[in-house]
Batch of 2 targets.
Target 1
Amino acid sequence: MQTLVKKIAITGGTHGNELTGVYLVNKFKANPNLVKRGTFETLVMHTNVKAIEKCTRYIERDLNRAFSLKDLADPEKYSYEDLLAKEINAELGPKGSADPKVDFIVDLHTTTSNMGISIIIDNDNTLTWQLAAYLKEREPKVKIFTWKGDTGDAAFVHSIAPNGFAIEVGAVPQGVLRADIFLETEKLIYHILDFFEKLNTKQLEELVGTVETYDYLELFDFPRDPEGNITGMVHPDLQGKDFMALQYGDPFFLTFEGETIRYEKAEESFAVFINEAAYYEKGFALCLCKKKSVKIPTMP
């Protein structure tokens, strides 16, 4: 394997009320030896400091939707998060460059949904998938979710680098720090650092075969009246059941009048980001996906 990684970034606080990433970055800044390895540099950074200070998701717009190439190049985009995205892009990228400042970005998130430990991927790059498969091998409970949702052109923080993904761990309320979630995320980070060290020292056994993934199908909204008001809730039989198979006729939503709205698609799917608090403003209740076995791409 000829791929060498010289610098990676671990980012937290992209959403200022997701405290696991915020406090892990604090820990790594205070104890840099924890993320120091012999063959590459690890940069740790808080991405949205103002939102962290206010313990809110963002100030003016979602920073994790501000990194499309179109938005980064648009001089008319000048909200706080748009300007911040351009600063971060200059520090870690620039996006699309043949010689970016970092080779890989791991962006740390939490979710109010019961997602367990999930990796969110929106690129097909070999190094990203080799690492995802490596993590799945060492932590079988890890779920790999490929996202093609509300972002269009890849607009996440980690899209600045040629390789990267987000880590989503939950369920944890917004603005709350949970020790178990913190420790699970920290453990995954150390696996990531081990992967890159093994890669650079040619001690990594390249993974072949397939890996299980959950691929995006569609975003699904709550039931609403003609004025757009929510008229039902995620059904109790579905709440907290992220990555559970949905079959035709399964309970889906429960109206305020007590009527069960059932899943009506013929094909099996799986629900993720179920009742995520941050997605109410985006207008969806959950994301539907399909389970697949994906061939792990091999290194050039």
Target 2
Amino acid sequence: MRPGPKFVLRVLIVAGVATALMLQHQSQVRLRQEIQRLGRQLAELQDVKENLSGHITGAKIVPEPRLPAPPTQPASPTPAPAEERAATNLFAQFKDPPDLTAEQVQAYLQANGRKVSTLLAAYRTSCDPALLQEAMRNYPADPQVAFEAAFSKDLSPEQRRQWLDAFEQAAPENALANYLSARDYLQAGQANQAVQELITASGKRQFQDYTLDRRQDDEEAYLAAGYSTGAAKMIASGQVELPQLAQLKQLGLQMVELASSYRQAGDEASAQSLLQMTATLGQRYGPGDCAISHLVGVAIERNALGAMASTSPYGDTGQTVQDRLDQLAQLKTTVKSLFEQGEPLLEGMSDRDWISYIDRDKAYGEEAAMKWALGKFGRK
């Protein structure tokens, strides 16, 4: 017996209801799952919010900036207040170079050994004469020890003479030893020995006053004492003494006086020879040295030329004595003008610029370093 239409209809209705119930159940399951997923995300967001609130206090929600942004001009660096510049600028801090303490010196020597360079650097940076005495005892044949000893104020004239002789023996190719020895002989009234030293010096090409070596060694001593690189460079550059300059300038004057004595005795050839030696002494210093050394050299050469006939030929370039005098006068003016313009700029240089300046000074000479400073910081 086949089922009637009503039965089929009921079956279809029941099946439809069952299907609807099943679909509803599946929908409810998916809804619960979605609610659970959203709940987990909300919990995670809450955790993030709480975590952020623990790190950022007092933060306020601000509107986002409007785009496009308006055009702007590059901002100029804000200068530090005057008192801050004064506290951080190396020029201001170390205008008067400090001496190292006994404790700093001993720590430096303990770390680096008591050799020639360290003992002399310790002596110069602390002004303790006992350190120079130690170097003199332990390294009497070293040229730099003899150089420092020759300028010691604690020596008698006889002892100074001994150290000048030691300097010549330790540095047989260095004309400076002979020049300093000649000056000492002239001081003692021993003109013949002085002239012999001058003749020997004029035949030597090497001229070494150890300024760069002394500065480098002193710089390392200040670094070992805890000073920054810039400070160590500046202090070592500023505190290095150049005692040879005063003696060489005096020697130049003495040589001109000696040439005058030859002239008065009727020996013009010897007078001219001595004047030329004096001019050569002045030319030993050039633009690659310290500016003061260069200017002392210019002064020595000018004094020699001033005792010559202005119209006489000078050198092998076709110049006259007067031409060279004019050239030296212009050179002196140029160097002085360079430093008059450049020195005010040094006070405002940063530590990094000071390092660059001093490195250029040591590599190319002080005048080249000042030209660099003037070109970088001067008015365009």
